[in-house]
Amino acid sequence: MGIIAGEAGIGKTALVDTFVVQASTVEDLCVGHGQYVESYGAGEPYLPVLEALGRLGRGPDGPRVVSVLRQYAPSWLAQMPALLPPTEWEALQRIVGTTGQSRMLRELTEAVDALTTERPLVFVLEDLHWSDRATLEWLAYVARRPDLARRFILGTYRPVEAVVQTHPLRTILTELRQHSPCVELALDYLSEADVAAYLGHRFEAPQLAAYLTRVLHRRTMRNPLFLIAVVDELVRQRVVTAGPEGWEMQAGVEIITAMIPATLRALIEIQLSHLRLEDQALLEAASVVGVDCSAAAVAAAVERTEDDVEARCMELAYQGQFLYAGGHAEWPDGTVTACYGFRHTLYQEVLYQRIPAGRQSRWHARIGTRLAHGFGEQAGEMAAVLAMHLLRSRLLVQAVPYLRQAGEMAMARSAHREAENYFEQALSALAQLPETHDTREQGEAETFAEALHDPLRLGQVLLFLTNYFNQAGDYDQAITTAQRVLALATAAGEVVLQGSANHYLGQSYEYQGNYRRALDSAVASLDSTPRHECLGMVFLPAVTSYVRLATCHAELGRFAEGQTFGEEVLQIAEEVGHPASLMRAYQGLGLPALHQGDLPMALPLLEWAMGICQDLDPTARLPEMAAALGAAYTLAGRIAESLSLLTQAQKQTTAIAIVFIQVLYRLSLGEAQMMAGHLEEAHALAERALALAHTHQARGQQAYALRLLGDIVARREPPESALAEAHYRQALALTDELNMRPLQAHCYLGLGTLYGRVGRQDHARAELSTAIALYRSLAMTFWLSQAEAALAEVEGP
User: Fold this and answer.
1) Which residues touch 524 (CB under 8 Å, ≥6 apart)?
2) Are residues 13 and 104 both part of a single domain?
3) Under a CB-based contact definition with an 8 Å cutoff, are residues 319 and 160 in contact?
4) Stretch among 194-198, 406-410, 694-698 having the lowest mean pLDDT
5) pLDDT tens sequence across 453-475
6) End of a domain among 474, 505, 536?
7) Alpha-carbon dihedral angle through residues 637, 641, 645, 646, given to the nearest 10 degrees
8) What is the pLDDT of residues 477-507, one digit of tens each?
9) Is 354 helix (H, G, I), strand (E, B) or coil?
């Protein structure tokens, strides 16, 4: 006897069907197939066995099957009128009369044995978790027989259903495993490779399969039935279509996350119907808490004791169908609560959607209130969760502060899209509040702050917006907003707010390439910013301002000033012992040295900055630190190390949100690819960097990208001299406007080298001489020797 165990949709029937088909090709089998359905119930003994015998009687071996039943199992034949002429069936009914269970068992067993004398028999009984006790007793009786009849009984069942219904199948299977040759095969869920193989076979489009695999693996929770249903729905809704070039997506994968096919919804509803009504309500409340939930939060929703809810959730987790146990949690108020999670997100979604809107709102309110009380002053740690519950319960006044906190935390983690979403939700909630002083006091939005005549609150709101505009690359808007903050702070005499406004204003000017105005703002920020306070920022504002002074002076070729400010910032960071600020300080001292070509000084400083970055939060600042250190490695000729570092940074960071860092990273990687001889890869990176810089009007970065493009096309064989010259000239126009003297020198060196290669000796002498004069005046000895060697080669012996 064989048993296949697995949950609904995992592939038991498909495996059985495949087995029967394949076995039939090896040897001529006689197959009887019966299946339980839930509606049979305990009052229908042997019905699936009768179904299997009936199918055999109506099949090619029908006459023989009827003959065997007539001889060995007349009580069974009497229950199958479709296999006999009416007169014979009526006569058989009179002869058989009432039959006891022991006779039924013996007759069926003898008939099955007789059927196997000529051909092997496979007897398939599916969904034994719904079987009646009489059928199970017959299975146990047959399985224990020591004879060598050529029969194989194959059953399938769902372990969860057997547990939920406290079905006798569990006891009988235990006996069979101990006292008879019964083999059980437990089917597992799909791996990501399995999902990829199915999609590849279904669509015969490798790129589409790769595109869909991960999201479908996650969405369907590895369940084969769920996977097939969702894929069928994608095709039905024409999200995936067959075109002239094969199957292709007509929408983004995000549509999949909201898709619940009707077939799956119906299946889940059937599974839920097996539970007591109070347990269904408990699971509904858990779905309001979320995919992961705690007994304390669920208890608050349904207004039951936490002990009662925990006991029921524990039982549901033991049954293993809807919930799993997830340990426990201790809240700041001393609450110790058991934690659970839904085994499939689809379960949580279907349960949530079946709750009436009014009840949803009430439960969200109770859950939000309980969480806020449980976490007290530390409620900000779960601001996003609290905001969600309060919004859905229409407690907008209470939701706004949590939305603001969630946005601030997202900004600190460089998750700018998430931050923008939280702030937009806050603005939307505020717009729905009545125009009263109490509700407006909750507002952190410009319109509400203005209505209260509260310039300080308005200034704080505008600061958040300035930071967002800077990181999104909207520098003109950031400057306008920062100037409004500065005006408000000046009018109110708020020195600290002035310092913060100048801090962000300097950042905007630096990102634009307006280094002289960035210096002015940095100085102004230092004049009004506490030296050793963070003021809610990731880095000490004083450290950031000194770093801006150091790097902007370096861009202008004032390396002595840059080094002085770099040393000052390092002293501040070391005094405070603030790791993030120390990382920024090492970078601030290392970058001017790198710009001047002082590698012995730049390399260790930038390596120390990278080390701190990896210890703190490698996903947030890694691209920026890697761009600086990668540029230093490239300049030092350590090309393989540079490429490895920059490539690893890209792998560890799913998205570089800050536009300025996106350009910076591409420029650094493009330079390394160029030095490695990968000119096409370098060119693509430089063009993308130029496009981003141009779109966001980052003129300093445009100049760097143009110079890199000039270097790349000048290195081609043969050099594209006209295009390279155009790139260099465009870069020089920007460097002249922005007074970026070090980059000017690099452009003149590139031009002179290009002219020398193409035989324009007079032009080469002029450009190289200009580069030498600039390098000498700026004490950039690293490149001075290169320029002098290039000029000597042009002039000849």
Assistant:
1) 498, 499, 502, 506
2) yes
3) yes
4) 406-410
5) 567 766 777 777 787 788 878 89
6) 505
7) 40
8) 889 989 988 888 888 888 888 888 888 899 9
9) coil
